[in-house]
Amino acid sequence: MPSLSAIDTALAAFASFVWGTPLLVLLVGGGLALLIYSRGRPYRHLGHSIDLLRGKYDDPNDPGQVPHRQALSTALSGTLGLGNIAGVAIAISTGGPGAILWMWVTALVGVATKFYTASLAVMFRGRDSTGELQGGPMYVIREGLGRKWMPLALLFAVAGLCGLLPVFQSNQTVQLLRESFAVPFGWISADGSLLFDFAIGCVLAAAALVVIVGRIQRIGKFAVRIVPAMVIFYLALTLIVIGYFWQQVPAAFALIFSDAFSGQAAAGGALGTVIATGISRGAFSNEAGIGTESLAHGAAKTREPIREGVVAMTGPIIDTLVICTCTALVILLTGTWREGEGIAGVSLTADAFSEVFGGWGPIMLLVMVLPLAFSTIVTFWYYGVKCFVFLFGARWQNFYTAAYIVLIVIGAVASLSAVNNIIIGMYAVMAVPTMVSTLLLARQVNRAAHNYFTALDLEQGKAKESEA
Q1: 300: which strand partners?
Q2: Which residues pair with 126 in a beta bridge?
Q3: Largest CB tally within 10 Å, which of 15, 89, 129, 194?
């Protein structure tokens, strides 16, 4: 019988192996290939996403479950929060400041990747066992590539089932609550937190169940209220910190660029570590090419796949180029990144805010993190249950929901390095069927995009003529 330490070591080795060079080439190289193949056309129509998010083209009779803005908010709720706060801190503490540049690279090519994956999620929607219309990589593969590619669809669904667990979110949320509130205010001692963690885990689980019962419609309504408000609040906090250290901002950017090509600040001083860390954390941050975001975008109410692709491509810009950059600057400008030992998560970011806001820093961070982490938990349930239904049918989905709720509590009280390594590894596995199917079906997206954008340009040209 292998020991727990041996299992942990094996799972860590598995996660490291699947996030190796071949996958990084597939994600970044594949995204770059899609960018070139599209000839940058989606980027030129980025402004069209504003009209779509405002509801200008919404039609309640269109197929799907939620409007464009709710689909985007749901997709963002799966990445914003701990992905941007703990994830950026982990990237810097393990890969050095230079890892941020490689996160930016994943975002820039991820814009194209998101455009293609989200367009395909609507273009090739399929029916689940109840006859309800669903979208996501497994349906794209089944409907777009045919039954002979079903093993690839099953691979995504199995990896999604294992990778979209709530343990990381509940664990880091409880950690921030404990370190920001419970310990400083003397509610618990630093080493006597088990009962507190369990209680908070139960509260998170109960609240998640209330939202989950309403399925994607309630999740979408919850996300569209929470995500924009918390993004604005967080940007305000980070801009105050950046303004406080404004004279050091050029030096922080210089450090990011110099370390990205030298690796001097990374663990072991290896440039490969910087690149691998930045790309993997960037993939976690914006999920471009992983496929999870397609599960949300596939639920959008639209008959035009390209519309959802245009909406989806704003995700990496908001998520990585804006939010992650602000988090990175806060950590670098305050100097707390030099204090992070090993994998320092949300606590490192909290320490950075404390440098400017004192004891209020972690509390204000908590105000932003808690609702976003909670929205991630309920969004991951939606992603996971779609994978479960694809594999086993809708009849048994209540068993998945029950197990998911229990895992929220377990994640709150346990140190789950083994499970976290499973999650990290399964994210990599999900990327393989997503990117392979996207590259194989890219021509169909290009054809639909040509027709859609040509018609849009004509429509806009006539509108300008009538105004003149």
Answers
A1: 66
A2: 134
A3: 89
